[in-house]
């Protein structure tokens, strides 16, 4: 998606958001004239090896417990029961 009209803003907003999340800029057209450029607030920055290493160090520092899917489901069910009560099906 490189261009979008003002009337398409209402109907194709999902495509616009997707294009902006991918880092593309989109021209805004009104009555056959380009009136603006929509661009993402931040340019996407690819992860580097140093970034990945720093994330691994942070994860080790947190020392989170290793949970199985069954244990996650049990804890999540307990949380939902506490939040919503027994009426949750």
Task: Describe what this molecule looks like in 3D.
With 89 residues, the protein is an alpha+beta fold. The chain has a domain at 3-38. It is 48% helix and 16% strand. It has four helices and three strands; from the N terminus they run βααββαα. It has helices spanning 8-11, 13-21, 49-62, 69-84, and strands at 3-5, 26-30, 33-38. A three-stranded mixed sheet has the order 1-2-3. β2 (26-30) and β3 form a beta hairpin. The protein starts with a strand and ends in a 5-residue tail after the last helix. 0% of the residues are buried. The model has no long low-confidence stretch (mean pLDDT 89).
Keywords summarizing the entry:
alpha+beta, 48% helix, 89 residues, 4 helices
Radius of gyration, whole Å: 22 Å
Low-confidence stretches: none
Order of helices and strands: EHHEEHH
- Sketch the major β-sheet: 3 strands, mixed
How far is the N terminus from the C terminus?
Answer: 42 Å
Give me the secondary-structure category. Answer: alpha+beta
Specify the overall morphology: flat
Strand runs, count: 3
Widest sheet: strand ordering? 1-2-3
Helix content: 40-55%
Mean pLDDT across all residues, rounded?
Answer: 89
Number of helices: 4
Measured by DSSP, the beta-strand proportion falls in 15-25%
